[in-house]
Specification:
Bound molecules: pyridoxal-5'-phosphate
Strand order of the largest sheet: 4-10-9-8-7-5-6
Distance between the termini: 53 Å
Number of strands: 14
Shape: globular
Order of helices and strands: HEEEHHHEHEHEHEHEEEHHHHEHEEEH
Strand content: 15-25%
Number of helices: 14
Radius of gyration: 21 Å
Amino acid sequence: MILSFLPKELQKIEQSNLYRTLKVIENTDGRAIKINGKEYLNFCSNNYLGLANHPEVIKKAKAALDKYGAGAGASRLVSGTLKIHRELEEKLAQFKKREAAIVFSTGYMANLGVISSLLDENDTVIIDRLNHASIVDACRLSKAKLQIYSHCDMEALEKILKRSEKYKKRLIVTDSLFSMDGDLAPLPKIAGLAKKYNAATMIDEAHATGVIETESSGIDVVMGTLSKALGSLGGFVCGSADLINFLRNKAGSFIYTTALPPASCAAALAALEIIGKNPGIVENLRMNSRLLSSRLSFLASHLSPIFPLILGDEKKTIEVSRFLFNNGIYATAIRPPTVPKGQSRLRITLTALHTKEDIECLASLLQQLIPK
Ligand SMILES: *Cc1c(COP(=O)(O)O)cnc(C)c1O
């Protein structure tokens, strides 16, 4: 039997403390969750602004369900492009100050579609070592030569660019706000190097969207998700009208899949509107981030809501996560291959919904835990 390797493989994963299971959440309001009837503060969601649970977002999603139905019914190029897709794409282009935008079913699929359609085996794609896994998968799919520079190392990037003249096209891709470390890529420097060496640039704003205004003006391709701070589902790409027209014609993950459900579009539209009208929500998140950094000097402070507490060892990380869980706080252990080997961590994320007391509670538990 070809699948007979599975039990052994699973055992191996378990023995390396890398086995993953799903925790089933019975109930959530964005701030707290219920697991097995017990309530926990959730400090590991990407629902940074609590918009997945915002009454106005839910109301608009329900209205779209009533108007258009549960699903879009077809792929975008067949009969799946609803008025609400068009509306969302126009709003996203405005939001990112670009000529045009295109939405995909997920952020993962946006990365796959862009990179694999723009590049082929004559090209090279140059990426930061800590870029998201969907970027790495996209690069492989493209067949372009993959070259990796160490995290935010501009000298290493320049070295690669210098020796990459032989490739027909060169594309530099980076997360703008890094998902597991919460730090920012030096975008103006990357744009400068790209210009000098005649390369194109793409950023992944999955975590920055709605949270942090990045210095993205010199970047050619801006990708983001509707699934994190915007509280919905879906990915998007913003750029020139030519770029977006090209993607509509060539991106496989746009063409060969059913269009984003109308309720998801409506939820994202409502979230964008709320962010535009109430800058106070983002300010709450920032205040919470400042409060936690002021309490925990051992955490790097990045002004982002992502706080990596790097413990290194997998087993230790699981233990710390369990200790927090026993004290009413949910923060999963993040282990390889999500992060590099020896870099297992708790990735603590804050939301605008957390109260001052919630953060003080988290901080005091972490202070007990971490020896000076
Ligand atoms: C989450 C994430 C994605 C994928 O987005 P989804 O909409 O969840 O598929 C892509 N890139 C980065 C950096 C991410 O963190």
